[in-house]
């Protein structure tokens, strides 16, 4: 198997998700936990059913806190560095589901400081502007200002004092080992991990963080530190997803920096159609005749992967498509067309909701 790398900034190669669980020291989400969640929520979100979210830390502690009445709260985030794509939105869709099912508070961190520190080509003005656009895209999902709070790092007045508390207990040697920082790394970046920990102690309760598994290195550090900040802060729990792959293949992650690899939230129907038709990797044979005879390979197909992970909620229809592909009954062009329609319907709804979000709406959510 090819080498792979997963850091909070880069994902490359064919990710071995089982190896990651071992390397990061996390645990799988068990069938028992899924049953417990379903008993509380009444149904299982597609991302749990299809195991897009597959790994966790201390999920049992979260469920225990919920059952005992102590409760928990949610924390997730976004680093503004360019147009958001469907991979970025996915953890927010899932977090909203959790929030509604468990009726809990949610804190969303918008790390305009992080992207300014790490991206040489971006000014603070750039990332602050992008932050507003990202917040509008996130709010388009329909969060309520009653129990959703947004911490934009360069706006929230308590970012520095709260990060200071964390930073006192995080050594440079730890960040070097965890993030690969070097002597030449700028000190804004070296300090930043303390900032990403801040929301974990927003409430004296169990915190649960949904994100893709690339963010887990932060939680590893945080779990060793939170009790030093105050006795009432349990180690944070986390629930991790796999990555939505780029259009062009099943390696790495969908990322705005690879041309043709992403479906952006502001793509037009024509752009979506062109990108899927031009770039999407399928598991098809070379000719129609061959495909009819030998069948295709849904396991090696990005189109099928997107349907499975994101767009085809109906288990029966997915199963049928799988069988029809294997049996040569359905051709890649038909699956592409189906995905284009599904994605465009989703984006059209999203863009309509985004257009309705005003500056005033955003301000209602911002922590001051
Ligand atoms: P960012 O902006 O890189 O990513 C935002 C969220 O999207 C997830 N993600 C993906 N998930 C699936 N498939 C992909 N291709 C994909 N690309 C990104 C990320 O894991 C993340 O959940 N440092 C963070 C911002 C942050 C944060 C947090 C994220 C601050 N606090 C707490 C999660 C939880 C960042 O730059 O995310």
Features:
globular, Rossmann fold, 2 domains, single chain, 7-stranded mixed beta sheet, Tyrosyl-Transfer RNA Synthetase, alpha/beta, 368 residues, binds tryptophanyl-5'AMP
Describe the structure.
The protein has 17 helices and nine strands. By secondary structure, the chain is of the alpha/beta class. A seven-stranded mixed sheet has the order 3-4-9-8-5-6-7. Strands 1-2 form a two-stranded antiparallel ribbon. Tryptophanyl-5'AMP binds next to strand 5, helix 5 and strand 8.
Number of domains: 2
Average pLDDT works out at 96
| CATH class call of the largest domain | Alpha Beta
Q: How many E strands?
A: 9
* Low-confidence residue ranges: none
CATH domain topology of the largest domain: Rossmann fold
Radius of gyration: 21 Å
User: Distance between the terminal alpha carbons, to the nearest Å?
Assistant: 48 Å
Question: Helical amount among residues, as a percent range?
Answer: 40-55%
Q: Strand portion, in percent?
A: 5-15%
Number of helices: 17
The CATH superfamily title of the largest domain? HUPs
Q: Give the SSE string.
A: EEHEHHEHEHEHHEHHHEHEHHHHHH
Which CATH-level-2 architecture of the largest domain? 3-Layer(aba) Sandwich
Structural shape: globular
- Largest sheet entry: 7 strands, mixed
Strand ordering within the main sheet: 3-4-9-8-5-6-7
What is the SS-derived class? alpha/beta
Task: Please outline the helices and strands.
Blueprint: E1 5-6, E2 11-12, H1 17-24, E3 27-28, H2 31-41, H3 46-49, E4 53-57, H4 59-68, E5 72-78, H5 86-102, E6 106-110, H6 112-118, H7 124-139, E7 148-152, H8 159-167, H9 172-179, H10 187-197, E8 206-212, H11 216-229, E9 237-241, H12 269-279, H13 288-294, H14 302-311, H15 315-326, H16 332-355, H17 359-365
Parallel strand pairs: 5-6, 5-8, 6-7, 8-9
Antiparallel strand pairs: 1-2, 3-4, 4-9
Helix pairs in contact: 6-7, 6-10, 7-16, 8-10, 12-16, 14-16
Tryptophanyl-5'AMP is lined by residues 8, 75-79, 87-88, 90-91, 109, 111, 114, 196, 209, 211-212, 214-215, 241, 243-244, 253-254.
């Amino acid at each position: 198997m090819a080498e792979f790398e997963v850091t909070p900034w880069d994902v490359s190669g064919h990710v071995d998700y089982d190896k990651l669980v071992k390397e990061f020291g996390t645990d799988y989400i068990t069938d028992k936990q899924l049953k417990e969640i379903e008993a509380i929520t009444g149904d299982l979100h597609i991302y749990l059913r299809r195991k897009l979210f597959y790994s966790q830390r201390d999920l049992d502690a979260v469920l225990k806190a919920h059952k005992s009445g102590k409760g928990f709260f949610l924390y997730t985030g976004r680093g503004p560095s360019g147009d958001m794509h469907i991979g970025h939105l996915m953890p927010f869709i899932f977090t909203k589901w959790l929030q509604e099912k468990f009726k809990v508070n949610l804190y969303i961190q918008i790390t305009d400081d992080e992207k300014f520190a790490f991206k040489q080509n971006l000014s603070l003005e750039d990332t602050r502007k992008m932050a507003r656009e990202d917040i509008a895209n996130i709010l388009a999902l329909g969060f309520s200002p009653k129990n959703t709070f947004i911490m934009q790092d360069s706006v929230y007045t308590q970012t520095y004092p709260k990060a200071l508390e964390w930073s006192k207990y995080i050594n440079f040697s730890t960040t070097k080992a965890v993030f690969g920082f070097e002597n030449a790394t700028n000190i804004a970046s070296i300090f930043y991990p303390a900032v990403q920990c801040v929301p974990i102690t927003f409430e004296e309760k169990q915190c649960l963080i949904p994100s893709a598994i690339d963010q887990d290195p932060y939680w590893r550090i945080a779990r060793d530190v939170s009790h030093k900040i105050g006795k009432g802060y349990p180690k944070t729990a986390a629930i991790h997803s796999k990555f939505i792959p780029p259009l062009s293949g099943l390696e790495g992650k969908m990322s705005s920096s690879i041309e043709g690899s992403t479906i952006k939230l502001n793509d037009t129907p024509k752009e979506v159609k062109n990108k899927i038709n031009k770039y999407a990797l399928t598991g098809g044979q070379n000719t129609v005749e061959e495909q009819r005879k030998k069948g295709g390979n849904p396991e090696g197909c990005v189109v099928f992967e997107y349907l499975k992970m994101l767009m085809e909620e109906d288990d029966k229809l997915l199963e049928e498509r799988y069988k029809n592909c294997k049996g040569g009954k359905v051709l890649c062009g038909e699956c592409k067309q189906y995905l284009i329609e599904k994605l465009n319907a989703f984006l059209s709804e999203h863009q309509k909701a985004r257009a309705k979000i005003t500056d005033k709406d955003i301000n209602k959510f911002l922590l001051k």
